[in-house]
Amino acid sequence: MSDLSNARRTDYTSDGIDAATLIGTPWAQISHWVSEAIAVAETTPGMAEPTAVSVATVDADGAPNVRVVLARFLDDRGPGFVSSLHSIKAAEIAANARIAMGYAWPGLFRAIRFRGQAERIGADELETYWRTRPYGSQIAASASLQSHPISSRAELEEQFASWAARYPDDGTETAVPMPEDFCGWRLVPDEVEFWAGRPSRLHDRIVCTRVGSGTLDDAASWAITRRQP
Ligand SMILES: Cc1cc2nc3c(=O)[nH]c(=O)nc-3n(C[C@H](O)[C@H](O)[C@H](O)COP(=O)(O)O)c2cc1C
After folding, report:
1. Within a domain: residue 44?
2. Ligand 1, atom 6: nearest CA belongs to which residue?
3. S-S: 204 plus which of 5, 63, 109, 196, CB 3.0-4.6 Å?
4. Lining residues, ligand 1, CB within 6 Å
């Protein structure tokens, strides 16, 4: 697998995007593309997790870090995700709240990229989300000290079993209390880029740059430019 030069080359044939076809506001365009990705994924077996995003942070030395999470929140303030305060990303965001995030839907020849400031998701919003998690996912989040080492899979499963014994599944959404280290962040963007793959790699890139303090749904708060592919 060391030589990828013969990997199949795909010509990208999206409808493209340009400042004139940007639907209304950055938010309208984001919600349109994310909704389409979710709808297409429902009927496309190979296209799993259309809400998966890469989240980039930097560590204390300024070295970049990246990992995939699911965007569990999305509104005109920006996309958000949940995680653990024990995680490496939590430590990195606490030291430097500037983060970046990217959706990529290669099958649709589309991507959206965000850069901005991470803000903690409020307790009520977080609790509402927590209650939608299946029982097993609530136990796993409670039992795992995310990003910390553990000696074996068996020890991890013992931790899971011990939390499950402590909070048995009573069939209600409040069977497992939200752990104190459960947390979430929203990326409040100051730059959003829409990328649409076009034939011969002559792609479209439309960039929205914050020029005001409004939300993604406030057209006056965003300047639109086209970048070369
Ligand atoms: C498809 C997918 C979805 C994921 N969703 C989440 C998530 O929503 N939250 C999370 O903390 N980690 C999620 N992970 C795991 C992260 O990629 C990562 O391993 C974990 O958050 C620890 O990252 P850190 O050590 O940099 O903090 C997901 C991984 C994949 C591949």
Report:
1. yes
2. 69
3. 196
4. 49, 52, 65, 67-70, 81-83, 87-89, 146-147
Residue 19 lies in a domain: no
- CATH number, position 189: 2.30.110.10
Q: Which atom of ligand 1 is nearest to the CA of 84?
A: 11
Report, as ranges of residue numbers, the positions in the chain whose pLDDT lies below 50: none
For residue range 106-143, list pLDDT tens digits in order. 999 999 999 999 999 999 999 999 999 999 999 999 99
Does residue 165 lie within any of the structural domains?
no
* Contact partners, residue 35, CB within 8 Å, separation at least 6: none
Question: Tokens for 48?
Answer: 């799993």
Q: Give me the domain span that covers residue 204.
A: 26-132+182-226
Q: Take atom 11 of ligand 1 and give the residue whose Cα is closest.
A: 83
Residue 110 resides in a domain:
yes
Q: Which residues contact 102 (CB under 8 A, 6 or more apart)?
A: 53, 54, 56, 111, 112, 113, 114
Q: Could you identify the atom of ligand 1 that is nearest to the CA of residue 83? A: 11
Into how many domains does the chain fold? 1
